[in-house]
Each structure stands twice: as C-alpha cells, then as structure tokens.
C-alpha cells in the first residue's frame, strides 16, 4: 500500500479532497501532518476521505507551522465522528512522554523520523503501524507492520536550478524485499523540507512524475521550466510558458505519463489560457504524483 505524506496546508489538503473519488482505499492511505491550529480544512479533508472508505493517518503531535513553538508534546484531537488512525512522532520524546501519548488511544501508529532506543521499541508492540524513514535494523527485526518512507524529491533553492528530469525513487518496487514491510510512502513533489511560502518566482517550474520504463520502472520527475528574465514579474506568462512545454512533451511522449486528474487539470488550464496561482499548480502536481504511483501498484 502507498502512504503519501502531505502537510495540512490549504492546497495539499485540497489535493486530497478533490481526488478522493479516484483513490482506491485498498491501495492508498494518506498520512497528514497538521500545520494549522485551525482544523477546519483538515476536518473537511478527513471527512471527504472517510466518505470513500479511506481512513487517513493523522499526526497528533505536530511540530511544524503553527506548532513550531508549541511546548511538546501537543496532542491534537479531531471530532469523534471522524475515522482516522492517530500517529505519534517519536523524535525527541522520552519513554515517559511516549507512553503518556500512547495511553490516550486504543489504536495508534508511530512515525520514527530518527533512530529509536531499545526502551522505545518495548513500548511500541501494540502499534498498528510503524512508519519510518530511518532504516535502523531494529525496526525490521522487532516489528511486523512497517511502512518505509523515502524523501525522493531533491528540492532546489531556485527553480532555475532544476534539471530537465531527475530520479525520484524505486521504493515502490523494492519495499517488499523486507518481509515485515507492508507499504511505502513519500512526500510527493514537495519534499520533506517544510516552508511556509516560497520566495519570488523568477522561473516557474511544473513538476510531473512518471514511471521510467527505461530505468527499471523507477519513478522520475520531469521539471518543466519557464523562461528566465531575472525578475519576478509576469508569473502568469511564465506559467503559460512552462505549461506549453509540459503539454508539448506529454503529447510527444504519451506513453510516459499516466492519464490522471492532475494532468487533465493542466490540460484544461492550457486550453483556457488561465493562470490559477502557484498553489494550485502545486496541487495538480501532487494529484498527478499520487495517482501515478497508485496506478503502478494497482
């Protein structure tokens, strides 16, 4: 099963809500890390996923965004009518605090971002899922329900620095090499690094994922860049330029890209010659990435 990780920002949550109907609940289970104290959009998103039979995983002691300066552990809760699996970030938690958080839930998961001690392992025997991006041997030897996370997106400080294409991951192929690994995940096309907003866009770049059949079905990303005039002016024109490059390449290489909701939205924007803003551009790239991965493992 595929476990994409999305932050609780406006357009990442919108990406999940809008594509809920095309997701298969036996193939994908999103992990959501809240970053806003106002949970209105988070609640709306979990409900939309529940409506199609998907039970998302929600991190209950977040550390990013509005929670950056909150004394830890801050344990959030959502309305009881929502169906989600609580997830505890273990980084920086003492065994006492970890046990206190675990005691709040009948069913829970944990996300091991860094290494864990033998004392931690003893507390996690009843976790429904062990999510980890640290390949510590103990994780594979002591648990039978592991999800491995790979951050395959190599974020560049400037859009102009992206190559035409880049390798993303082959975890969708190799995750089952460990007998106790039941799934895999990634941070889609945003990467693990969190930022509240980007800087001025001298170049507009659209990221589009694909399964590279010439590279053993590894996932790659095409980076479609606009012209660079060394200013942050005319973002709409630059988006149009990048989008024309994307549509031209996809039409020339139709077998390389899945026909997804995200790609259809890019096509509609191309036809209408409309610039929706960079947040929506990222939303459609996220949608395309998730559906591309799910289509491969289907």
Automatic annotation (TrEMBL):
Superkingdom to which the source organism belongs: Bacteria
Protein name per the record: Sce7725 family protein
Source species of the chain: Shewanella frigidimarina (strain NCIMB 400)
């Amino acid at each position: 099963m595929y476990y994409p990780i999305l932050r609780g920002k406006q357009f990442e949550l919108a990406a999940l809500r809008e594509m809920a109907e095309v997701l298969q609940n036996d193939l994908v289970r999103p992990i959501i890390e809240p970053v806003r104290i106002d949970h209105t959009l988070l609640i709306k998103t979990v409900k939309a996923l529940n409506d199609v039979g998907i039970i998302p995983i929600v991190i209950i002691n977040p550390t990013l965004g509005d929670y950056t300066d909150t004394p830890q552990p801050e344990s959030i809760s959502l309305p009881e009518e929502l169906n989600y699996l609580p997830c505890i970030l273990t980084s920086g938690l003492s065994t006492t605090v970890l046990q206190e958080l675990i005691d709040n839930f009948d069913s829970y998961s944990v996300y091991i971002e860094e290494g864990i001690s033998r004392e931690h392992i003893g507390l996690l025997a009843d976790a429904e899922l062990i999510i980890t991006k640290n390949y510590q041997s103990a994780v594979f030897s002591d648990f039978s329900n592991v999800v491995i996370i790979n951050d395959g997106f190599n974020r560049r400080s400037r859009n102009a620095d992206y190559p035409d294409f880049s390798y993303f991951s082959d975890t969708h192929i190799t995750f089952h090499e460990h007998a106790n690994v039941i799934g895999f995940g990634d941070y889609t096309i945003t990467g693990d690094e969190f930022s509240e907003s980007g800087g001025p866009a001298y170049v507009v770049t659209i990221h589009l994922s694909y399964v590279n059949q010439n590279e053993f079905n590894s996932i790659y990303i095409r980076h479609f860049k606009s012209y660079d005039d060394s200013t942050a002016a005319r973002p709409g024109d630059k988006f149009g330029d990048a989008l024309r490059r994307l549509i031209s390449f996809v039409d020339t290489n139709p077998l390389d890209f899945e026909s997804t909701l995200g790609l259809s939205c890019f096509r509609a924007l191309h036809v209408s010659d409309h610039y929706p803003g960079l947040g929506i551009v990222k939303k459609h790239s996220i949608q395309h990435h998730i559906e591309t991965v799910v289509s491969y493992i289907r």
